[in-house]
């Protein structure tokens, strides 16, 4: 299975990615997690990316494509992969197509903007693994602690309300047009075009997972 998760910030891409990757035995390629790892490591790329991320903007296509192209060389990508948060500009989508990276499905998460802000304000993350929780909707077994490692959970720097609103604006302007892009490609009848599947992302996490798996197998 080779797929893209597309949807606004806080739609549940990272949360559902965990279940999908387990189900199909494929790696999660989250450009956001890769950038946060670079920020934490203090690399020059990380220092540059941090400013952009904290403002809710998008890191340059050049940097992102460099990260993804390198990641795709790894042997664990041979049997499939899940892109989480990539591509998110037309330029990134076109580059992926030009590179001939095979794709089966583009999964579009639909969640209204009003729900997003509440989700972000309660999000807790285990930075090393990217595992994501919510204080109310998806709480860890023990408060503030990762279920698997027992390590502390943190809040993301870009989850402040004003940054979330900036990220939503960027999503509507630059990433949402990709839904039309992939829909048009599918409609063209090109056998290389991925199927576009829309999923309602509102409701309990497990129910959304059932919808996702059903959509992927349809
Ligand atoms: P990235 O890390 O990709 O952030 P994002 O797309 O804004 O998405 P999020 O991670 O915020 O949300 P999510 O959909 O994964 O939701 P989650 O599962 O965590 O990118 C961060 C930044 O990096 C960008 O702003 C940009 O600067 C840069 N960047 C990354 N990729 C880039 C690219 N390709 N090009 C350029 N720049 C790039 O869920 C959110 C919360 O809701 C959690 O608390 C969760 O527990 C909860 N939740 C999940 N599902 C449900 C549910 N069904 N009901 C209730 N709560 C739920
Ligand atoms: Zn995420």
From TrEMBL:
Residue ranges of the region described as LID: 122-159
Cell inner membrane listed as a keyword: no
Superkingdom classification of source: Bacteria
Residues that hold ATP according to the record: 10-15, 123, 132-133, 203
Residue ranges of the region described as NMP: 30-59
Domain Adenylate kinase active site lid: 123-158
Binding positions (AMP): 31, 36, 57-59, 85-88, 92, 156, 167
GO CC terms: cytoplasm
GO biological process, one term: AMP salvage
Keywords annotated in UniProt: ATP-binding, Cytoplasm, Kinase, Nucleotide biosynthesis, Nucleotide-binding, Transferase
Enzymatic reactions: AMP + ATP = 2 ADP
Metabolic or biological pathway: Purine metabolism; AMP biosynthesis via salvage pathway; AMP from ADP: step 1/1
The protein's Enzyme Commission number: 2.7.4.3
Coiled coil start-end: none
The record's note on its domains: Consists of three domains, a large central CORE domain and two small peripheral domains, NMPbind and LID, which undergo movements during catalysis. The LID domain closes over the site of phosphoryl transfer upon ATP binding. Assembling and dissambling the active center during each catalytic cycle provides an effective means to prevent ATP hydrolysis.
SUBUNIT field: Monomer.
NCBIfam families assigned to the protein according to its UniProt record, in alphabetical order: adk, PRK00279.1-1, PRK00279.1-2, PRK00279.1-3, PRK14527.1
Similarity comment text for this entry: Belongs to the adenylate kinase family.
Biological role stated in the UniProt entry: Catalyzes the reversible transfer of the terminal phosphate group between ATP and AMP. Plays an important role in cellular energy homeostasis and in adenine nucleotide metabolism.
Name under which the protein is recorded: Adenylate kinase
Organism (species): Hydrogenophilus thermoluteolus
Gene that specifies this protein: adk
């Amino acid at each position: 299975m080779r797929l893209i998760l597309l949807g606004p910030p806080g739609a549940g891409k990272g949360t559902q990615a965990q279940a999908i990757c387990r189900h199909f035995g494929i790696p999660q390629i989250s450009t956001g997690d890769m950038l946060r790892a670079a920020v934490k490591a203090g690399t020059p790329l990380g220092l540059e990316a941090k400013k952009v991320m904290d403002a809710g903007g998008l890191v340059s296509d050049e940097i992102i494509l460099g990260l993804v192209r390198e990641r795709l060389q790894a042997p664990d990508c041979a049997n499939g992969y899940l892109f989480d948060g990539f591509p998110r500009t037309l330029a990134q989508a076109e580059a992926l197509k030009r590179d001939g990276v095979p794709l089966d499905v583009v999964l579009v998460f639909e969640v209204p903007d009003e729900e997003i802000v509440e989700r972000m304000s309660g999000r807790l993350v285990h930075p090393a693994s990217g595992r994501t929780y919510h204080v109310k909707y998806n709480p860890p077994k023990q408060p503030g602690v990762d279920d698997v490692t027992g390590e502390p959970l943190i809040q993301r720097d870009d989850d402040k309300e004003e940054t979330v609103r900036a990220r939503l604006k960027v999503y509507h302007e630059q990433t949402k047009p990709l839904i039309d892009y992939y829909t048009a490609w599918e409609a063209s009848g090109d056998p290389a075009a991925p199927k576009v599947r829309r999923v309602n992302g509102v409701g309990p996490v497990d129910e959304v997972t059932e919808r996702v798996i059903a959509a992927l197998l349809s």
